[in-house]
Amino acid sequence: MKQYVELFKQLYEVIDKANIMIDEPMKNHTYFKVGGPADILVTPEDIKEIQAIIRICKENGVKYYLIGNGSNLLVKDGGIRGVVIKLSKIDKIEVEGNKIMAQSGATLYNVAEVALGSGLKGMEFASGIPGSIGGAAAMNAGAYDGEMSMVMESMLAIDNNGELLTLTKGEMELDYRSSAILKYGYTVVSVTLNLQVGDVEVIKARMDTLAKRRSDKQPLEYPSAGSTFKRPEGHFAGKLIEDCGLKGTYVGEAQVSEKHSGFIINKKNASAKDILELIQLVQNQVKEKFGVQLHTEVKIWGEEKESSKQV
């Protein structure tokens, strides 16, 4: 940690020491429940702290990473060199008329519940998606014929120099599982949603229906990062994987779910290496049999353990 002496000194000036963790296991911060330690993990409590941390990292030449709830993240067993900025404490939600302003750390579940309580429809599709609204906005997350692009009006972000900027709908560059946030390395601070007035009972019924569909069809009882692969054009990843006979396939303690082949799960005590090898096996076999290249939807960060590196 000698290389971080000056960094620590500056961080201590802008953020409470209780919100700075050293050698923090990332398995404690991801839905997959795997991942080695981050050199430093910080949990800022307001926007100014995020800006200050980003500036400090850049001034000291230290790489930084932004996470919400870690629902779409796989961290390798060697962990992460640099600073992980976890935004889960920045989670305020406000309602004004038919608009909701949600800070990046707010969970999609909580945002959907606030919308329900306010009689606003449009967020039902997201009520069961794990993770934060900041991450969902950045990747234009979607499910059940809905996606964030359908409800987002604008977002407040931090650029690579630590400055705030507002992105309008047209400036977000929203595409399938992509946005200007991912393209340019910005940080989502808050999202403004433009929803419609609806009937509370109808909204609740839709949320309940989708929750049951998820429970029936997805392996929610095991750690995972949701759908492992992006949907290839003209195909469904889960169907391709199942047609390769890979449903239930193991590598170590990682498994292609028997409930839904599009999910790779941590069946017991999988390592990130197990999961990555199973992802590669699936990609290779789908490519060989169908000529389709599967691309991961889950983000993969970090380093391999030294012992597993090739010499």
TrEMBL record:
Group of enzyme by EC: oxidoreductase
A GO term from the CC aspect: cytosol
Highest rank taxon of the organism: Bacteria
Organism annotation: Clostridium tagluense
Annotated family: Belongs to the MurB family.
Recorded metabolic or biological pathway in which this protein acts: Cell wall biogenesis; peptidoglycan biosynthesis
Protein localization: Cytoplasm
Active site: residue positions: R177, S227 (proton donor), E297
Keyword terms: Cell cycle, Cell division, Cell shape, Cell wall biogenesis/degradation, Cytoplasm, FAD, Flavoprotein, NADP, Oxidoreductase, Peptidoglycan synthesis
Family annotation (InterPro entries): FAD-bd_PCMH, FAD-bd_PCMH-like_sf, FAD-bd_PCMH_sub1, FAD-bd_PCMH_sub2, MurB, MurB_C, MurB_C_sf, Oxid_FAD_bind_N
Entries under PROSITE patterns matching the protein: FAD_PCMH
GO terms (BP aspect): cell division; cell wall organization; peptidoglycan biosynthetic process; regulation of cell shape
Cofactor(s) it depends on: FAD
Any matching Pfam family: FAD_binding_4
Signal peptide range in chain numbering: none
EC number: 1.3.1.98
Biological role stated in the UniProt entry: Cell wall formation.
UniProt catalytic activity: UDP-N-acetyl-alpha-D-muramate + NADP(+) = UDP-N-acetyl-3-O-(1-carboxyvinyl)-alpha-D-glucosamine + NADPH + H(+)
GO MF annotation, one: FAD binding
Domain FAD-binding PCMH-type: 34-198
Name of the protein in question: UDP-N-acetylenolpyruvoylglucosamine reductase
